[in-house]
Amino acid sequence: MSSFISRLLKSPIATKRLVSQLTQSGEGKFSEMLRQFSLKRILGVFERKGGVGERTKSTTSVSSELTDDMELATGIFKRELMLRQGGCTDPWAMKRPLKRGAGLEKDPTVIPSAFDGRLVGCLCLGDRVPKWMWLEKGEPKRCECGHYFVLKNVPAV
Q: Which helix (H) or strand (E) holds 20?
């Protein structure tokens, strides 16, 4: 303990680390000894409400609740969440591919779209790769295999 006091007396400005090392062993006795040596200037810098060298503690409350997705969602994602809450498990109709209908000129396969055009892929017989075509609103369009498609307007999600 005397080596600490001699180091403290030699240094012009006491560091926090030095004072905390000195005060850890016996808070009451050491602070009383410092007062006796009239080293109050050192205590004045580091003295706190509970004693020398004691740190304050944060008492900020932490909320354990997470916010709901519906509160944070916007735009199309919010509409999708609302549809799912309403019971629609596939709002974009992407779980199963559309099956071809009769494909005749008088009875074409109906392709739903909320826009004036849609990209359609036809798996023609014997092909492994679909043949892509741009289907537009209006007259039915014929694929290379002879199958007809027509665009049907549906409301947007």
A: helix 16-25
